[in-house]
Design a protein that fits this description.
This is tRNA (5-methylaminomethyl-2-thiouridine)(34)-methyltransferase MnmD. The protein is α/β, with parallel strands linked by helices. Helix content is 30%, strand content 28%. Bound molecules: S-adenosylmethionine (SAM).
C-alpha cells in the first residue's frame, strides 16, 4: 500500500508501507528530483548534445521522467528514456500525486496517455521522446544497448540493501556507455568503492536539502 504524503517543499511523495520508506526525500520531492537527477545528471550529461539515452532504476511516480522529458523538449534534445520498475504504480495513483502542476499539460498528458503501454513496449510519446518502462527487477533486466546516463533511484540501503550490493551496482554500471554518467542521491564509502571498481571517476556534490552530499560518477572512456 502506498500513501500520498506531503513533503517540505509542498510537493507530494508516496510512503511505501511494505518497504517502510518514502519514494522521495521528505525534505522535498520536487527539489530532490531537480537537484540530483536533472541538475547534476541530465544537464551535466546532455550539455552540447542533441540526443541522450537515460536508464532509470525505479520509475515510481515518474517524477524524474516528466522533469527530464520537459527539459529535453524545451532544449530540443531527443530523449530515449528506459525506466526499470519492478512494482509499477497504477495510473490512478500517479494521477493523485499532483505532479501534473509541475510540467506543461502536454508533457503530463503524453506521459499519462502512454504509461500503461510503455510498460509493455517502447512508446514514441512525442516526436522527441521514446519511453519504455521494463516491468522487471534490476537484477533480471537485460538490454541490447547502452545508455548515456543512469539515474540510480532505488530505495535506500537501509530498506533495500540488495539494491546497493557491489554486484548490483556493477550490473547497473554495465549498461552505461564509456564516458556515461551515473547519478544517485546517496553516497557511502561502500558505494564509492563499488563504483570506482567499475572504472569510474567519482565526484561528491552537495546533496539535495536534507543530505550533505550526493554522488556523480563518470565511466572511463576505454
Ligand atoms: C525511491 S523509489 C523511486 C522513485 C521514482 N524515481 C520517482 O520519481 O517516483 C524506488 C523505486 O524502485 C522500485 N523497485 C523496488 N525494487 C526494485 C527492483 N528490484 N528493481 C527495479 N525497481 C525496483 C520501487 O517500486 C520504486 O518505484
Amino acid at each position: 500500500m502506498n500513501i500520498i504524503t506531503p513533503t517540505a517543499d509542498g510537493s507530494n511523495t508516496l510512503y511505501n508501507e511494505t518497504i517502510g520508506e518514502h519514494y522521495h526525500s521528505k525534505h522535498g520531492a520536487l527539489q530532490e528530483s531537480k537537484h540530483v537527477f536533472i541538475d547534476a545528471g541530465l544537464k551535466f550529461a546532455s550539455a552540447g548534445k542533441s540526443e541522450i539515452s537515460i536508464l532509470e532504476v525505479g520509475l515510481g511516480t515518474g517524477l524524474n521522467f516528466i522533469l527530464s522529458f520537459e527539459y529535453c523538449t524545451q532544449n530540443k534534445i531527443k530523449l530515449d528514456y528506459n525506466s526499470i520498475e519492478a512494482f509499477p504504480l497504477t495510473l490512478d495513483v500517479i494521477n493523485q500525486t499532483g505532479y501534473a502542476e509541475y510540467v506543461a499539460p502536454s508533457i503530463w498528458n503524453d506521459f499519462t496517455a502512454n504509461y500503461d503501454l510503455a510498460l509493455i513496449k517502447p512508446q514514441n510519446i512525442s516526436p522527441l521522446c521514446i519511453l519504455e518502462i521494463p516491468h522487471t527487477t534490476l537484477a533480471e533486466f537485460k538490454a541490447d544497448k547502452k545508455f548515456d546516463v543512469i539515474y540510480y533511484d532505488a530505495f535506500s540501503v537501509q530498506h533495500q540493501p540488495e539494491m546497493w550490493s557491489d554486484a548490483m551496482i556493477a550490473h547497473a554500471c554495465s549498461f552505461l556507455k564509456p564516458g556515461g554518467t551515473f547519478v544517485t542521491y546517496a553516497i557511502t564509502g561502500k558505494l564509492k568503492r563499488a563504483v570506482k571498481a567499475n572504472g569510474f571517476t567519482i565526484e561528491k556534490l552537495p546533496g539535495a536539502p536534507g543530505k550533505r552530499e550526493m554522488l556523480r560518477a563518470v565511466k572511463a572512456l576505454v
